[in-house]
UniProtKB/TrEMBL annotation, chains A, B:
Top-rank taxon: Bacteria
Gene name tied to this protein: aroB
Protein's cellular compartments: Cytoplasm
Binding residues for NAD(+): 108-112, 132-133, 145, 154
Gene3D superfamilies named in the record: 3.40.50.1970, Dehydroquinate synthase-like - alpha domain (1.20.1090.10)
Co-factor requirement: Zn(2+); Co(2+); NAD(+)
Coiled coil: none
Cofactor, free-text remark: Binds 1 divalent metal cation per subunit. Can use either Co(2+) or Zn(2+).
Family to which the UniProt record says this protein belongs: Belongs to the sugar phosphate cyclases superfamily. Dehydroquinate synthase family.
Name used for this protein in its record: 3-dehydroquinate synthase
Organism: Desulfosporosinus meridiei (strain ATCC BAA-275 / DSM 13257 / KCTC 12902 / NCIMB 13706 / S10)
Length: 363, 363
């Protein structure tokens, strides 16, 4: 996948920042030397597995800097205040100060955790996102959202914290376990569903090369999917409007993840079931035809993504949706697809309509 | 103190916000109704003692809103991630959402804790600071700094989070315990020392009416002292330059507080000793005459503020200064007075010079 040319796309935000697609891990050091003249110390935050694969390549370019590598155990449960507190102690132990730079090397958990850490450590130090999973590359590394979970809900404590840059090397996807690929595909297909009907067709048409990780097709998939996210967050950094569409499937998906205590379900599978529930609700509201709902289910199925889930109780799930950050004044705010390639935000769904949608995805 | 007229002063910042000096607790509700049309729910965060005194007066104006009062136990040790986690659970239990408003009703601890909570809850909800102590009114409520402590250092995790407004009612100072008055006086005298020689003289000349809480003199003292802070943070919201001067005495003071585990020492007393240590260091560096150092010590003494402290070890204190957020690349950054009414930032103090300054304030 190293054939891809580096593309730089600027995200319009209060503080604009660039996303480098198709860059190389080794090249980050040169970029940093060129852009910043006051960095001496770098804190790389990563998982052991990711660090084993990529830390050496990354550090090859960082020999001018004093580097510390902080390893965080894998798992969504590490996105916690406890882990944040430990990172703080370790960072101080390594002499981290206001001029230090944090590099988040990993997937969504690392990006969220290290990003939130950078946003509050000494009231904010600089951050570079180096996403190594499909989900992080097409979605979570873009847009500045960082957070940790709380037992009462996912991503409840966090910030909008634009990084200095997002540095994306497609080659890290080559070794990604398929389960992780699914996580990213769920978000990519969601991007297509809410904002890019052509990309939805691309996913329908290119199943074979995508499943075989064809290098050119993957570059195209990551780039096109990232561009949807970049376009949306550039219009609405703080989620006052259109950015909320990116939460399609997530009100349902987060409820599933919380109900299952983040065990036995990946984020992507939760979102996938959530997309299907939202599609059923959209059908009930006259926003989609049943043929369109079937297309959504068929596409998710074809990539091995869950479209139904077993052993959960619809009332409990409904209750879990109350902690959703989008809710206002006790009303549930939901994102529903409007055909293929468009979506809308609504608070016009009653609990009984939501329950009926839940029942369509439970067995 | 109700004679004071309300003054509105705008703070220049990324997001400018007003400071209302001499307003009334009862009047906040009318202000909110006038300024915001989408607030339904308000979370008041306070201490029991403060709430007993002022919550009724505040709520008199807030009858249009759904209100929850969250009580936090008193003490600097409550500025913690643990307390933040509990506040989060309580807030969710009360149906707090992105449209909710947080009112921080209290002193510096409440302002920092409730402010940081508001800054990260669901990635940031609106905040009004209602400072009820002298320290909070002249200093901590102004400028948007919020934080919690970590066992490894004070205010290590936090944010720059401008409130919607600062709402200051001088009448809350009438019942303030003298120990709390001292906390504020230490910061007020610091403001005078770094930026307003006339205000320093005011403190020298008006000792009697200040100690007797003369209402007009106090209004003048709070207003003039707040204006120093407002002027400085308006020039440098993010502490890239001049704002650092406000930390005069705090590198030393925080070291004392941390070393004593925040027990048996108030913040004001720590800062007061810290100001004296900084003055001795300034003398050693040729920035102050010994007569000026004596004036500083005499003024602090005259208000019952500590100028020496017993039973601490200078090496331990020096070590504690390493966690100071201002430090860069392992060098200690210090603020030193330059005569009376000016100050500067320097990294040109060696550990042995700092040790010598410590020894002057230890016995």
């Amino acid at each position: 996948m190293s054939l891809a040319m580096q593309q730089k796309i600027e995200i319009a935000a209060d503080k604009p920042y660039p996303v480098y697609l198709g860059s190389s891990l080794e090249g980050l050091g040169e970029y940093l030397r060129h852009q910043f003249d006051d960095i001496e110390h770098i804190l790389i935050v990563s998982h052991q597995v990711v660090a084993d694969l990529y830390a050496q390549r990354l550090m090859k370019g960082l020999q001018d800097y004093r580097i510390n590598l902080l390893i965080v155990p894998a798992g969504e449960e590490e996105k916690s205040l406890d882990r944040l507190s430990r990172l703080t102690a370790e960072a101080l132990g390594h002499g981290t100060d206001r001029k230090s730079l944090v590099i988040a090397l990993g997937g969504g958990v690392i990006g969220d955790l290290a990003g939130f850490f950078a946003s509050i450590f000494m009231r904010g130090i600089r951050l570079i996102q180096v996403p190594t999973t499909l989900l992080a590359q097409v979605d979570s590394s873009i847009g500045g959202k960082v957070a940790v979970n709380h037992s009462a809900g996912k991503n409840i404590l966090g910030a909008f914290y634009p990084p200095q840059a997002v540095w994306t090397d497609f080659s890290t996807l080559e070794s990604l376990p398929w389960e992780e690929v699914e996580n990213g595909l769920a978000e990519s297909i969601k991007h297509a569903l809410i904002a890019d009907g052509d990309l939805f067709q691309f996913f329908e048409n290119e199943q074979k090369p995508i499943k075989h990780r064809d290098c050119l097709i993957w570059s195209e998939m990551v780039t096109r999917s990232s561009l949807v996210k970049i376009r949306i967050v550039s219009q609405d950094e703080r989620e006052q409007g259109i950015r909320a569409l990116l939460n399609l499937g997530h009100s349902f998906g987060h409820a599933i993840e919380t109900e299952m205590d983040y065990r036995g379900i990946t984020h992507g599978q939760g979102v996938s079931v959530g997309i299907v529930a939202a599609a059923h609700l959209a059908f009930a509201k006259g926003l989609m035809t049943s043929a369109e709902v079937d297309r959504v289910i068929a596409l998710l199925n074809s990539y091995g993504l869950l479209t139904k889930i077993k052993g959960l109780d619809s009332q409990n799930l409904l209750h879990k949706m109350q902690a959703d950050k989008k809710n206002q004044g006790g009303r549930k705010i939901l994102i529903l697809p409007q055909g293929i390639g468009q979506a809308l935000v609504t608070k016009e769904c009653s609990d009984s309509e939501i329950l009926a949608a839940w029942k369509q995805v439970l067995f």
